[in-house]
Amino acid sequence: MIYLLCMILFCIGLYCIIIKRNLIKIIIGMSIIDYSLFLFLVLIGYRMEGRAPIYSQTQQVKNLVDPIPQALVLTAIVIGLAVLALMISIAIRLYEKYGTFDINEIRKLRG
Amino acid sequence: MSSMLPLFVAFPLGSAFLIALCKNKKFADFWANLCTLVLFIMSLQTIGILKTHGTMVYKMGNWAPPIGISLVLDGLTVLLLVTVNLIAFASCLFSVGYMEKYTAKSKYYALFLLMLTGMNGLVLTGDMFNLFVFLELAGVASYALVAFGTEAEELEASFKYMVLSSIGAAFVLLGIGMLYSYTSTLNMADIARILSYRGLSVTTLFIGVLFMVGFGIKAAIVPFHPWLPDAHPSAPAPISAMLSGVLIKALGIYAILRVFFCVLGFGLNPAFLEILRILGVLSMMIGVVLAIGQWDIKRLLAYHSISQVGYVILGIGLGTPLGILGGLFHLFNHSVFKSLLFLNSGGLDYAVGTRNLKQMGGLKEKMPVTEKTCLTASLSISGIPPFNGFWSKLIIILACIQARHPGYAFWAVIGSILTLSSFMKVQRYAFYGAPKKVMKKIKELPPCMQLAMIFLAIICLFGGALLLPMFKNNFLQPAVQVLLNGDKYAEIVMACLK
Amino acid sequence: MTLIVKEITRLTVGLIFLFGVYIMLHGHITPGGGFTGGVIIALSFIHLVLAYGGEYSNNKMNRAIASPLESFGALLFILLALMGLGYGGVFFLNFISKGTPFTLPSAGIIPLCNIAICLKVGTGLFLIFILLTMFSPGRNK
After folding, report:
1. Which chains touch B (3 or more CB pairs under 8 A)?
2. Can you tell me the distance from the alpha carbon of C124 to that of C66, in angstroms, rounded to the nearest whole number?
3. Residue B175 lies in a domain
4. Average pLDDT per run of 10 along chain B, which is 498 residues long?
5. Are C131 and A89 inside 8 Å of each other by CB?
6. Which residues on chain A are in Cβ contact (under 8 Å) with B136?
7. Which domains does chain A have, with CATH numbers?
8. Rounded to 5 degrees, what are φ and ψ at B127?
9. Strand partners, B295
10. In C, what residues contact A, Cβ < 8 A?
C-alpha cells in the first residue's frame, strides 16, 4: 500500500515534467521523481520491529532493518545532486541566451 | 594478469582528475592521448586473456560475491571493451587539433576521460547497482560535453537530452529497486540463479518492461529517440563520434543484452525476440526516412545512427547464432564507420565553418584525405562490398531469411538503399560540384586529425577480415556464445569464483 | 547582512566546521562518513559567504584554493585504492590492520577514504555554490 504512494509521487513528478512549461518547474519535477525513488528504495529495506542498522558497543544486535538500500540511496542522492546542479547551471545559461524560461520560446532546433 | 581489470576504471579516472589539476594544455593533450592509447592496448590484451583463461571474475577488495562487487570479463565484455577504447583513442587523437577552436581544453579532456571511465566500468561490472552508478557517471559527463560550446542551440539540446536521459535512469533505478526487493541480492550471477529457480512471474515481466524503457531511452530505440537528433549534432565532433559510436551502444544496447539475456533470463523467449525485431525494424525505417530530408550534415548522421541501431537490434532479435553474429558484428562496424563519419563532419566544420550541406561544395581538391575517408565511410554504411558494413548487413539479411522472416530482410534491403541515397547526397554536396567563392582559403586539416581519420578508415577497409575464422573465433564468437548461453551465465560465473 | 547575523556567524562558523570534521572522522563508528561530513564543511564556508559577502570571504576560501583541493581529494581516493593493489594484490583491498572495533583508529582504510571523500564533496559543493551565484554569467563580477 505504501509503495503505491511512492508511485503516485513518481507520477506527480512525471506530470510536472510533461505538462509544465517553465524550465525551473521541469527541474523541480525531475527532483520529485528522484525523491520518490529514494523513498521507495528505503522503504524496501524495512523489516518488522527493526531498528537503525548501526552496531554499538552497548546495545544488542537483534532486529535491524536492511542496510543495503540505505547505501544505495546515499549513492543515488549524490548522483541526483550532481545532475540537479548541472541542470540548474544550464537553465541559468539558457536564460542568458534566450531571455525566457518558457520552453515554447526555446525552440531553435527543429526538424 | 587479472588485476588489469580494475585498471580500466582506475586509470582514466585518475587521469581525468590529474588533467583537471594541471592546467597546462600540452600536458593535457599528451596525457589524455597516452591514457587512451594504453587503454586500447590493454583492451586488445583482454582478447588474449579470454582465450587462455576463459571467463574471468575479479573480486574488488577481496570480498566474495554476493557481499562484494565483482568485475566479470566474458566474450561480450571483450567485444565492447575493444570497441569503446578504439573509438576513444581515435576521438582523443582527433580532438588534439579540433578542440583548439574551443576554450577550456583541459576541462574537456577531464570530462572525456570521465565518460570513458563510466563506459569501461559499465561493460566490466558484474553488479546491478554498480551498473547504474557507471551509467549515471557516463551520462552526466556526456550532458556536460554536449553543452560544451555554450551556444544557444547546444544548451537547449543538452537540457532536452538531460531531462529525457534522467527519466530513463530513474526507470532503471526503479527496476533495480524492485529487482532487489524480489531477489534480495544485487550480484548479477546471484540474481540469475534465483530468477531461474523462481521462474517467470508478473514481477519479473514488470521489471523487464521498466528496464526496456530505461535502457531504450539511453539506446535511442524508436519510441524513445527524440533526444538524439538534437544532442548529437550540438556536441563537438569528437564527442559526437563517441556519443553516436559507443555511448548509445555501451549504455543502451550492452545493458539491454546483459540484463535481459544473462540476468533476467528471458533472452531467447520468442515474445521478447518478437518485440526486439519490431523495435528494430521501426528504428531502421523511421531513422532512414527522416534522414533523407536533412541538410545539416551532423543531424543527418544522427538520424542514421538511430537507423543503424535498428539493424543491430533486428539482428539480435532474430535469436539464431547467425543473426546474433550479424547484430554484434554490425555493432562493432557501426561504431567504426559512424565515428569516422562524425570525425569527417567535424573536419569539414573546422575547415569550412559551417555544417550546412547547401553551403559547401567542391572540396575534393582542397581536402583529399577527408574526401577519401568520407567516401570509405559512406560506402561502408551503405553496405557496398568490400567494406565492413557490407559483410555485417549481408549476415543480418541472410539470417533473416534463414530464420524464415523474409519480410524483415525486405525492409533491411530497403533501408540500405535509402541509406545509400542519403550518403550519395552528402558526397555530392560536400565534395563534388563547383566550389563556392568562399572556398579559396580552405586547406587540409592538421596532421593529428588526418591520422585519426586514416586509422579508422583502414579498419573500415579491412574490417571484413574479422569474419575469417582466425579472428572470428577469438573476438566475435565468444560474444555470440555469451548471448546464446544466457541462461548458463550464473553457472559460468560461479564456477570461476572457486 | 545585519550585525546580529554577522556576530552569530563569527561565533558559530568555526564550531560548524569542527562538527563536520567530527562527523567525517567518526564515519566508521557513528552514522555519517565522508559525504555528510563534506556537506557540513561546505555549509560552514557557504555560511561565511552568505553572512559577510563574497569579497570578504574570498580571502578565506576561494576558487583558486578549492578547485585543486577537489581534484586532490579524488586523486587521494584512487591512490588509496591502488595502494591496495600494490600491497595486497587486490584492488581496493583493506590493507591497514583493522584494530579493535569501536575505536577511532580501526576499520583499515575506511577513515582515510572518508577524508578523501570529504575533501572532494566539501569543496565540490562549495564550488557549485559560488560558481552559480558569484560568477554566474549575468553579473559583472
Report:
1. A, C
2. 8
3. no
4. 87 93 87 94 91 88 84 92 94 90 88 95 93 95 90 89 94 95 91 90 92 93 90 90 90 92 85 91 92 88 92 91 92 93 90 81 81 90 88 92 90 92 87 72 82 90 85 88 87 84
5. yes
6. 79, 83
7. 2-48+62-98 (1.10.287.3510)
8. -135, 140
9. none
10. 30-31, 35, 101-102, 121, 128, 131-132, 136-138
